[in-house]
Each structure stands twice: as C-alpha cells, then as structure tokens.
Amino acid sequence: MDTGEFLTKVFLPSKTLAKRPSTVRGYEIHVRKYLVPELGEIPLDRLDYEHIQGCIARVPGSAASQHRVLATLKSALSMAVKLRKIQYNPAVGIQLEPENPAEAQRWTPAQARQFIEKTADDRMGLMLRVAVRKGVRRGELVGLRWENWSAKERSFTLSSTLLQFGGKLTDDTPKTKAVSGRSTSARRLRG
Known about the structure:
With 191 residues, the chain is mainly α. It is built from seven helices and five strands. The model is unreliable at 176-186 (pLDDT under 50). The chain is elongated and about 60 Å long. The strands form two sheets. The protein has a three-stranded antiparallel beta sheet with strand order 1-2-5, with no helix packed on it. A two-stranded antiparallel ribbon has the order 3-4. Helix 1 (3-18) packs antiparallel against helix 2, helix 2 (21-39) crosses helix 3 and helix 2 (21-39) packs across helix 4. The protein folds into two domains: 3-82; 109-190, no CATH class.
C-alpha cells in the first residue's frame, strides 16, 4: 500500500465521524494539498525521515503551517503503526522551527470599556459587548439562539457554533473547554 492510498482511503475516512468538521477539513486540506502530492507514491513501509523532512520543508507559509501538516502526518502514521501497516512512526523524530506565535495584545480594562461604549448603539453592539466581556469565539456568538436564552437566569447557554465550510454554513459544537475549564456545551453567559 502506498502512502497516498493509506492517507485517503484509511486515515481520512476514519476521522470523519470521530472529529469536529473543522478538524476533518484541516486534515483533508493537509492530506490533499501537501502530503499526497509529495509522499503519495512512496510505499507506506518505505516512508522515512528524509521523505517527511523534505515534504514538510516545502509546506508554504509560517512555521505554524508546517507544524499543523506534520501533526496530521504524525497522527496518520500513528494509526498505521496501530494497524500494523508499519513498525514505527518515522514522523516522530522530525524537528521544526518553533512556531513563536506573536504575543496577543490584550486591551486594558479602560480600552475595553471605551470600545463597548463606542459600539453600544451599533446594531452589533450587544454581540460585541458579549465578545469583549465573556471572551466568546466568533462562531459561538453567531451560533447563539433565542431558545438558549434564560430570562430567569438572564443568561445564554452556549450549545452550538456556526462555521463556514466550502461556502456553506454548518452547525457544530463549541470548543470543548471554556476558559474556566468547564465544557462550553453547558457554559452560561450571564449579563
């Protein structure tokens, strides 16, 4: 079995049911755009460090992009080991430049207050206020529904996030962990 066949016929189908749609989409992009064109014709049991190092070095963009593509390949090859298609995962030893993400610039409380005041009369003002005060993701904000509003508790329950895939809007579950560490599926946003 060649690497491309394993990635497209074994790895990707196994992920479609177990992962979030956004995660599956990332895997599909990595496999089809970077991994299959570079490694697809190499027999899976002959794939080695040099093949992988060369492939990842040719992934365009930031070091973060290379890290994501390598993570996808590591996951696929770990599956191949578990299925006894290969004896070891040759992607494990790959070293990449650190991602070094830019430090997030946070607003001071005064800046946040000023933003909320300036956008109060905007038609999106309430949504912006919730985003600033509660740290809710964009997709979670646009996924809020009136049936998730509790007038008694004066709060919303985050139960879905709205994502765009291939020009279509898709409902999904919110990210699994909230800032507090609780599941966002039960996280309440109080006014």
